[in-house]
Amino acid sequence: MRSLQRYVLIAFGASTIAVGAWLKFNVGPVPYTFQNFGVVLTSLVLSPAEAALSVLLYIIMIAFVLPVGAGFRGGPHLLFGYTGGYIWGFLLSAPVVSALSRSYLRLVGRSLEALRTRDVAILTAISSVGMVPTYVLGYLVFRYYALSSTGLLDWARAVSALFGLHGSSEVVVLFAAVLAFLPQDILMDHLLAVLASKRVYALLLSRGVNTIEGCTR
């Protein structure tokens, strides 16, 4: 029974990430998705191993051309293209966010369903720290492609110019690949994921699943 629950939770995590990828809006040339929301929510609710397996399942779904990526796209080109670093970075970040958040909850002696305002703020900060591997790997891959592609570099300059930033190729690529997305990621994706985790965790508990302890209640 526990094994079946685990598979269902992993599938839930992968589906949550996919739904986050489908939610997309643009501000000028800057495309925003809620993919980080799905990754952070999955990481908060599931164990580090289950969170990592959820991302791995999501990656496998993309590889098999299922339309679970941003813009309802799928295929190996998403994993090995200029935005592929972010997707692989999720595989590193998910268990980190999960482990750090669980350590904090054990420290304060609370569960997700009993979060206070201070806990929400701290978990939002923790999730942002845990997502650093995603930003680093995403930037490195994007930089590799952008510095060898006039079109991609022009896009990075357009994004930077939208915010009044002009500089070297390295500066505009860093801004367009990471910095332009941080406010939305932290203040929307991560914060909403922490708030949603209270409801999701409470729902799981009502079904007899204690994901924080990794056992049924």
Q: Which short descriptors sum up this protein?
A:
217 residues, mainly alpha, Arp2/3 complex 21 kDa subunit ARPC3, two-stranded antiparallel ribbon, two-stranded antiparallel sheet, 10 helices, 4 strands, 71% helix, 6% strand, globular
What does this structure look like?
This protein is mostly helical and 217 residues long. Helix content is 71%, strand content 6%. The protein has ten helices and four strands. The protein has helices at 2-22, 35-45, 48-63, 76-80, 84-108, 117-130, 132-146, 150-162, 169-177, 182-206; strands at residues 24-27, 30-33, 209-210, 215-216. A hairpin with a 2-residue loop joins strand 1 and strand 2. The chain is globular, with a radius of gyration of 18 Å.
What would you say about this model in short?
By secondary structure, the chain is mainly α. It has helices at 2-22, 35-45, 48-63, 76-80, 84-108, 117-130, 132-146, 150-162, 169-177, 182-206; strands at 24-27, 30-33, 209-210, 215-216. It contains 10 helices and 4 strands; from the N terminus they run H-E-E-H-H-H-H-H-H-H-H-H-E-E.
